[in-house]
From TrEMBL, chain A:
The keyword Metal-binding does not apply. It comes from Geomonas diazotrophica. The glycine cleavage system catalyzes the degradation of glycine. The H protein shuttles the methylamine group of glycine from the P protein to the T protein. It comes from the Bacteria. Belongs to the GcvH family. Residues 18-100 form the Lipoyl-binding domain. Its cofactor is (R)-lipoate. Pfam families: GCV_H. This is Glycine cleavage system H protein. The glycine cleavage system is composed of four proteins: P, T, L and H. The modification N6-lipoyllysine is found at residue 59.
TrEMBL record, chain B:
InterPro entries: BPL_LPL_catalytic (IPR004143), Octanoyltrans_LipM/LipL (IPR050664). One of its GO terms (molecular function) is ligase activity. The lineage of its organism: Bacteria, Pseudomonadati, Thermodesulfobacteriota, Desulfuromonadia, Geobacterales. Keywords: Ligase. The keyword Ligase applies. Signal peptide: none annotated. Residues 31-234 form the BPL/LPL catalytic domain. It comes from the Bacteria. CDD domains: LplA. This is Lipoate--protein ligase family protein.
Length: 123, 266
């Protein structure tokens, strides 16, 4: 499955009409030790690039924006007790939530892994 | 040279202070607004808790109520702070105002640079924690009391933490606020905690470093240091009508509401 990224450093992996969302390894590294993840409510409807969740590190509290529109179907409850999972694997076990009802056409507004790597070089 | 607005609101109470900081952030438009540096104080002395802290678990709320010490919840993360005898600042800008240092870590270094400059103007050996004794202890460990913890970009003088800073990032806008302690009131603040915070004894204030500073004098130093470190000009200005109105609403419907203060919900 291909992964896509936003300019605000979220990632999304789409399988059919369902997408898994998180923050990028780069963002997790930049934020430092993650101390809290405010997970979205299941059933919450989000539009692409609107606020989905929030994350706090020892350095800053940041909003997480949804890379795609849809409805939150599942959240990573493990982050409640272990927010450090985001530091350990922001793009694997540190996923934030799953969104359903995704329109794949929205992926056109995102960057693929190669374009994101280029984008990071320019920061 | 980029011009920033300088807004000195003087001392206000906790809800008014936090509402105003959030209003400055909410009213900031990335491509249209000039960035802002606000200077303020706290009257009465107030305990602030971080955005995601459990106030009832960390604070002895009965004692706070009995002694009339107000509690307010910030929109920024971090630990509890007892705000008394300090000069407080907040700033709102776009990532682009940080030049090429737009990341969180670099941003902190850039945005806290004027604090180092201020202390250095007083002849103090101020550095970032990460730049001195990096191996001495674990930086960034979570504590419920802000001044008990030490993070990479905390400002330290003689290896003791001075003041605290916290950031909130939205898409296209950054809020950072923090404190410069004139006198050490940490011991008073610690009385209201449920758990001891041993690291807090290592925090320090200007008075303890032999610097008896008046508020106004310190503000002038902050302004000079900010202009030099950020390479910008500060222009004193009042709040806009929109900022005042937004702050009024946030104060009434968020920061004065127990639901927000004690449960973190608004």
């Amino acid at each position: 499955m291909a992964k896509f990224y936003t300019k605000e450093h979220e990632w999304v992996e789409v399988a059919g009409a369902q997408a898994t969302v998180g923050i990028s390894e780069h963002a997790a590294h930049e934020l430092g030790d993650i101390t809290y993840v405010e997970l979205p409510k299941i059933g919450k409807s989000v539009k692409q690039f609107e606020t989905l969740a929030a994350i706090e590190s020892v350095k800053a509290a940041s909003d997480i924006y949804s890379p795609v529109s849809g409805k939150v179907a599942e959240v990573n409850q493990a982050l409640d007790a272990a927010p450090e999972l985001v530091n350990q694997g922001a793009e694997s076990q540190g996923w934030i939530c799953r969104v359903e009802g995704v329109n794949e056409a929205e992926l056109g507004a995102l960057m693929d892994a190669a374009a994101y790597a280029e984008y990071l070089k320019g920061l | 040279m980029c011009e920033w607005r300088l807004i000195d609101t003087g001392p206000l109470d906790g809800p008014a202070n936090m509402a105003l900081d959030e209003a400055l952030l909410n009213c900031f438009q990335k491509d249209r607004s000039r960035p802002v540096l606000r200077l303020y104080g706290w009257n009465p002395a107030t305990l602030s808790v971080g955005r995601y802290q459990d106030a009832a678990a960390a604070l002895n709320l009965d004692l706070c109520r009995d002694e009339g010490v107000p509690v307010v919840r910030r929109m920024t993360g971090g630990g509890i702070i007892y705000h008394a005898a300090e000069v407080t600042y907040s700033l709102v800008c776009a990532p682009e105002h940080l030049g090429d240092r737009t990341g969180v870590k670099d941003g902190f270094r850039k945005l806290c640079g004027f604090l180092l400059g201020t202390y250095q103007r007083l002849g103090l050996d101020a550095r970032f924690a990460v730049d001195c004794n990096p191996d001495e202890e674990r930086l960034g460990e979570r504590t419920s009391f802000c001044f008990a913890g030490k993070e990479e970009f905390d400002v330290v003088v003689n290896d003791r933490k001075i003041g605290g800073n916290a950031q909130r990032r939205l898409s296209g806008a950054i809020l950072q606020h923090g404190s410069i302690p004139l006198e050490n009131r940490v011991q008073q603040g610690l009385r209201y905690l449920k758990e001891p915070a041993p690291g807090a004894a290592r925090s320090v204030s200007l008075a303890e470093l032999g610097q008896k500073q008046e508020c106004d004098g310190l503000k002038r130093l902050l302004v000079d240091s900010f202009q030099e470190c950020m390479g910008v000009a500060l222009a004193p200005e009042p709040l806009t009508e929109q900022e005042t109105a937004t702050a009024g609403k946030l104060e009434e419907y968020k920061y004065r509401c127990p639901k927000w203060t004690f449960e973190g919900r608004s």
